[in-house]
Specification:
The protein has 132 residues and is mainly alpha-helical. 63% of the residues lie in helices and 0% in strands. The protein has six helices and no strands. Helix 3 (40-54) crosses helix 6 (103-130) and helix 4 packs across helix 6 (103-130). The longest helix is centred in the last third of the chain and has 28 residues, at 103-130. It is globular and about 50 Å long. Bound molecules: zinc ion (ZN). Zinc ion binds at residues 64, 84-85, 87-88.
Length: 132
Amino acid sequence: MEDRRTKIINDKLNDLSKSKFRSSFHLRKYMIEYIDDKGFNTILKHSYDFINERLRPSNISNDGKQTPMKGHPVFIAQHACACCCRSCLEKWHHIPKNKELSDNEVNYIVSLLIEWIKREYKNNLVIDKEKF
Ligand SMILES: [Zn+2]
């Protein structure tokens, strides 16, 4: 049975999968390898670091441009999950701009990103197996 938090995450990922733009983001092979190399705990830590540094403050001078489109798997997850900037957070997740994010909000964002990354990771393993 899924708890309330899991249901919120699942419902949101389902909504995002219906967006042509959001569902166009996928992890590349080098990102899967990076996860293999670093492990999920490190990816979790990086997620907190990025969200705390780049999204948490009430005023962000480069809002809308703070999340690269390549490089780190968490960046890709942020675009796929509409957690890339404060405008997208407001539009998709109803988290208002111009205020500092709460611990709860940061935890919610990170849970969403990690779940998205885990699903992408699993899909990749399946695709890899199909080649043989
Ligand atoms: Zn955005």
